[in-house]
Structure formats: structure tokens, C-alpha cells
Amino acid sequence: MYAVSLVPRTTSCRLSSAFLCHLSIPLKTLRLHHHYQHQQPHLTSLSFQIRSLRKQIDMAAQGGDSYEEALAALSSLITKRSRADKSNKGDRFELVFDYLKLLDLEEDILKMKVIHVAGTKGKGSTCTFTESIIRNYGFRTGLFTSPHLIDVRERFRLDGVDISEEKFLGYFWWCYNRLKERTNEEIPMPTYFRFLALLAFKIFAAEEVDAAILEVGLGGKFDATNAVQKPVVCGISSLGYDHMEILGDTLGKIAGEKAGIFKLGVPAFTVPQPDEAMRVLEEKASESEVNLQVVQPLTARLLSGQKLGLDGEHQYLNAGLAVSLASTWLQQIGKLEVLSRTQMSILPEQFIKGLATASLQGRAQVVPDQYTESRTSGDLVFYLDGAHSPESMEACAKWFSVAVKGDNQSGSSGHLVNGSAGSSHDKWSNETCQQILLFNCMSVRDPNLLLPHLRNTCAKYGVHFKKALFVPNMSVYHKVGTAADLPENDPQVDLSWQFTLQKVWESLVQSEREGKKDGESNGNSEVFTSLPMAIKWLRDTVHESSSATRFQVLVTGSLHLVGDVLRLIRK
């Protein structure tokens, strides 16, 4: 019987027409009656739609009216303590299992068909490639990644699309209110990331995804996503030095934390690693009876002429890992026969399409500034990459150098931005292009490691920055916000860290000048009190340039900075 009642109980949440329109279920479905009970059992998808509708209406009855209220409630879970502060009661990992019990998710998480990925760099890209491949085989997917750049809903993708605001609100309030009612002094409310991971588990269980792809937030062993006890397959992307104040100051210690996601008898894959890291991974795998295999970067030949959806040579490494993870899941859960890469001349069509159409903001992303394109003879293009470790900074610098040279030769940036309008000029020469750096990083990072990697790698490819701009992030770490509530300027902002970054940059420039007799190195740098002021300066500079000049701005050092730039230039 498929009758549906649409009489909700009294609730503080309005069931708006926008909410009902967003349910992706035809109105006529709501009028189904008992005559369907005699039809053939091909109505499985219809049954799922009706169950989903019931859940969404029930979810919508749980909490406040506005998205802003949900973000304020979420912000209240952000701890003011340092993530490395071991006295923080929220660091007790066993609490995650208490939360799962309070949310009645214990059985759901055992049934979930999870692909779990840790790593220092490339884990988000690997997860994105993996999800896209499995989705192209027709399976329903859930993808949980971090951090978000513009909107917290980016962290939760269903079938490759960010969760809708209506669904997010329903699931959010269901989890938040239940935890508020059931937590106490001994089991306090979960901290910010733990709540988001729990929310992902709830969403994926309620939406009945076939595959749940989970990116570790930090480390692995004590990460909230590690509540999954029996994943289908695990992956470790490239390892390097990051979050050393938490994970340890050697590659071996860092590898040990990442290997914490290994589970007894569950297959695992990794990419080529430094010897110290690989030794630890192999030891941990042996202890857990894990069959750990090392996969090589994907080759262009296997893609049959297609390009990866994520730009940069380093993405072939992530794509190779994703192919192995997806293949294992498809064989074990999808019951599909997938040849090993050594047996293939090219990848199956679904793999190629999945890899070619994968998308992830803030990773090797190119966005022309629409504002300047319509008003000046010059051109302003942003190259955005959230690199924030020495190794990823080097990969970012290589991508940027190759990208700007390719752009200048092709004469347009349009082909790199999914159909965005390219430049009105037919061709740009290297003489009419200027590269500018827009940079910030967290104070726990070491700019003496990051900036030399960036500058030296670019110089190796013949790319030299005309100017470097240092800015504070607009986003704040104690509040989850939207583009609408970002501050334009804060007169009280502390710029001491930005001046530290500038000093490191200028010392690199000075060293370079001393090594050159002709003094051709460009070392201009400036600290701006806010990001909007830096963007305004860039636009004014383009407008005031006497000749048609392309300004190519590399935005890097922080995913928060990348997200803030995207919010501003898309307003």
C-alpha cells in the first residue's frame, strides 16, 4: 500500500512550498492509493521516494525556521581550545560511540558500505574522484569532505550534489535537538567536527546511500570518521608534514596516526610514500592483517584522451588511488567484474567519465574576475589552490606555473573554468602578463617552509611574482557563516602575523637580489588590513593599467582564504 499522509504535527518549522518543491518527488506521487498494491514490484524506487518524503517532513519538524539559526547552533559547538590541547574533554574519542548510541545510529553505521580515506594531501581529491566513478556506475553515493569553502552544506554531497538547504535543516535539527536532550556533564555535546561527522552518518543512513565515501578530518586514529569499524576499503593519500603539533613531528609518527584507520582484514591502498612513512604504514598494516597495496599514478593512456576533472599533474596520483578504491568497492559490494589496471589498455567508460567530470572547489581552480572583464581593457584571473603544506605548496607552484604559461599561449582562460567567459583579447604574451601572489596561512604553519617552496618552484619554471599581497582571512574560526555575513573590514584586526609573512617573503627576495647582478627580481609586497581591500586594489590596478595587461593572481596558503576569495568575486 502506497498511501501517504501529509498532515504534519504542530511544529515551529514552516513547510514552505520551496521545501516541498525541493523534495524531487512528483506531486502525483502524493496521491497514490491502494490500487498500486496489485502492481508488479518494480516500484522499489517509488517506495524509496515515499520513505524519503516521510523522513524529510519529519526532519523539518525538528527545529528553527532559518538557516542562520542552524549555523548559530553549529557555531556554538566550536571549542575555543587549541586542537592540540589534550585537556579538552571533547578529545575523548570513545565519546563518539556514545553519540552514535544517543542518535540510534549504531546499526546504521554497521550496515554502511564505507570507503575511508586519510592522508596529508590529496585525500579530498581522491574521495571526489572515487565518488564520481561509483556514481557513474549508477549507485547512490554520499560524500563527506572537509573543510567547506563557502557553505557548510558543501561537506555533504548526495549523488554528487551538495545537500539541499531543506534537507540539511531537517537532519541538522533532528541530530542537534536529540543530542541536546540526551547529553549531560559526563557526555557533553560533541565538538564541531564530531557533530558534522555524526550528521553525515545520519544523512547517509536516512538517504539510503549505496556507498559512503568519508574523508578523514584530521589524523585518522582519533578522527570522528574512524567510528566506522568495518569499511569496505581504506586509502592513504600522500603523507607529509602538517598538523605536527597534534600528529607528531616526524613522518613516522604522522604515518602511525593516519594508519589508525586500518581495520582487521580490510584491504587498503596507498601511493608511493617517503621511506620512513612507508615503513610505518607497512608495520601497522601487518599488525592488523591488512593487505596494503601501493598504487602508481594513473597514466594519460588509460584515460583514452580525456583529461582529469581536477587540474594539475599531482592529480594523476590521486586518481590512481581512487581507481583502486572504486574498483575494490565495485567488486565487493557492486558485484561487478573490474579488471586490474595492469590488465587494462584503457579504463572502463564509467571510470573515465567519473574521473573526467569530478569537481572540487579550491583545488587548482581558475576563475576569471567578471567585474574587470566587462569594465576594462585589462584582465584579472584568479588561480586558487588551498595548498598549506610544503609538499602541496610545491605541487601548487608547479600547477600555477604550467597553467599561466598555457593560458598565455592559448590566449584565453575560458577553457579552464567550465565555460566561464574567457578574455576578450585574442592573445596574451608573457610581456603583457603579471603574476601576483595573494597569501595567508594559519599561524601554526611555518612560512619559512611554505614560501621558499612556492617561490623557488615557480622560479624554476620561469614564473616570477611582480608583487605579493598578505591579508587576514575574512572567515573566523569560531563562527560558521555565509557570504552575506562576512565583515568587509575590521579596524581592530591584528596584522602581526601578516607582517611576519611579509618579512619572510622580503628576506627571500633580498637573498635572490644579492645573487643577481642585474637586480631584475621583483620584490614588491604589501599587507592589507582586509581581503576586500586587496581585491579592490587588484581591480583598480587592472583598471588603471595603461595597456592591456593580464594580472594572474595565485591565491594559496589556506583553504579558508580560497573560500573567502570565491565568496567575494562571485558576489
Automatic annotation (TrEMBL):
Q: Which UniProt keywords are listed?
A: ATP-binding, Ligase, Magnesium, Metal-binding, Nucleotide-binding, One-carbon metabolism
The Gene Ontology biological process annotation of the record reads:
one-carbon metabolic process
Co-factor: note: A monovalent cation.
Q: Which reaction does it catalyse?
A: (6S)-5,6,7,8-tetrahydrofolyl-(gamma-L-Glu)(n) + L-glutamate + ATP = (6S)-5,6,7,8-tetrahydrofolyl-(gamma-L-Glu)(n+1) + ADP + phosphate + H(+)
Keyword Nucleus attributed: no
The coenzyme or cofactor needed here is: a monovalent cation
Main role? Catalyzes conversion of folates to polyglutamate derivatives allowing concentration of folate compounds in the cell and the intracellular retention of these cofactors, which are important substrates for most of the folate-dependent enzymes that are involved in one-carbon transfer reactions involved in purine, pyrimidine and amino acid synthesis.
Q: What GO terms fall under cellular component here?
A: cytosol; mitochondrion
Q: Which PROSITE patterns match?
A: FOLYLPOLYGLU_SYNT_1
Q: Which family does it belong to?
A: Belongs to the folylpolyglutamate synthase family.
One of the record's GO molecular function terms: ATP binding
What protein is this chain from?
Answer: Folylpolyglutamate synthase
